[in-house]
Design brief:
mainly alpha, Rhopdopsin 7-helix transmembrane proteins, elongated, transcription
């Protein structure tokens, strides 16, 4: 009884927090409405999925229980679309994305002949032999295949988005991609533990499965609170990239070798033009600087400028801009007349917008922290 009460308590708390955060995400004023609504839908699906654990407290029809359990097939597709919407600024929900709901409908169709369409006695008999029923086994196999595929797809998407960002932007979005990677990793751990739970469910140790389930709900609470904390403390964290941008490796593969050779002289001239612009105009002081901004200023096509920096100079645009910011910061740190200027003031002055990104970039380029650099002078 204590275990049941604990499970019900955790379920109710998790559902309440999930639905509360979903309400917050759908009502808060933000430029990221699609992303917020997708994550809100993910949270609602989560709340619906775990509500099945209240079946011992409230009378839930058997058909409804099975139908609710199938909502798990919509969770990761929704999360994947959420990641897609966060990564790309021009993301829009389109009818083609309905293809992600196919497993949900397939699973429910599988249950029609021997569960949904039969009488109550047959349903009870079906559930009593659930571990040996082909429909249940098919359900579990399909959901685990889906979990693996969608998590891999999410990680690949984040990896590509990060590479595109580093080649074209120099703002704070890379931090949001890092955090989103961590969040996806946390979900991966959650689903891995769920897999272990399901393995025990089909063995003689079903009691272990129930205890693991409670641990999962607690872990789920932690993940949700973590997301809420991050969203509230960093409202401008998610700034997406343009999905039309191509990776430099793709641009190179599209170019012919002879055309690259012919452009060698032009590239050298453009390098001088770029370096002169960076020194004289200091565009890196803009924390939201993009490769498009510089391309427009020095009148070089974005495609050529991307090849110039990311391929010819062998630097990501992100690192290229940060190297200029760090050199500017070093000059300020060396200036004895500015010895009372704090590191926090300096990082904002040179174009960074967070202490963590400044410290990381400074240490990457100098080997020590800004404070350590100032003390070593």
């Amino acid at each position: 009884m204590d275990k049941i009460n604990l499970l019900v308590t955790i379920t109710v708390i998790t559902m309440f927090i999930s639905l509360f955060l979903a309400l917050f995400l759908t009502t808060v004023k933000t430029a990221h409405k699609v992303s917020n609504r997708l994550f809100a839908f993910f949270l609602v699906l989560t709340a619906i999925d775990i509500s099945i654990n209240l079946g011992d407290v409230f009378e839930i029809p058997l058909n409804t229980r099975i139908f609710i359990s199938s909502f798990v097939f919509l969770q990761l597709p929704t999360f994947y679309l959420y990641v897609l919407s966060v990564c790309y600024s021009d993301f829009k929900l389109k009818p083609k994305y309905l293809i992600h709901s196919i497993p949900f409908f397939v699973v429910n169709l599988v249950f029609v002949p021997r569960f949904y369409a039969v009488n109550l006695a047959s349903k009870i008999s079906f559930l009593e032999k659930s571990t040996s029923m082909p429909e249940i086994q098919f359900n579990h196999i399909l959901v685990h295949i889906q979990i693996v595929l969608y998590l891999i797809a999410a990680f690949m998407l984040l990896r590509k988005a990060k590479k595109i960002y580093l080649e074209n932007y120099a703002g704070a979005s890379v931090e949001s991609l890092h955090w989103l990677f961590q969040f996806t990793l946390a979900l991966s751990i959650f689903y891995f533990i769920a897999l272990i739970k399901n393995i025990f469910k089909f063995t003689d140790y079903r009691n272990i499965s129930e205890w693991v389930k409670m641990g999962l709900f607690l872990f789920e609470l932690v993940i949700i609170f973590w997301y809420l904390y991050k969203a509230l403390n960093n409202p401008g964290l998610f700034r997406s990239i343009d999905s039309k941008l191509k990776l430099v490796e793709y641009i190179i593969s599209e170019e012919k070798n002879d055309s690259l050779a012919e452009n060698e002289k032009a590239y050298n001239e453009d390098i001088l033009k770029l370096q002169q612009y960076m020194i004289e105009e200091k565009p890196f002081l803009n924390p939201s600087l993009t490769i498009q901004d510089i391309a427009a200023a020095i009148q070089i096509p974005v495609r050529d400028l991307s090849l110039l920096i990311n391929h010819k100079l062998d630097q990501h645009f992100y690192d290229f801009v940060n190297s200029h910011r760090i050199e500017n910061a070093k000059a300020i740190l060396k200036d004895v007349t500015k010895s009372k200027v704090t590191v926090l003031e300096i990082l904002y002055e040179v174009g960074f917008n967070s202490k963590s990104s400044f410290n990381t970039a400074f240490k990457k380029h100098t080997g020590i922290t800004p404070t350590g650099y100032r003390k070593s002078l």
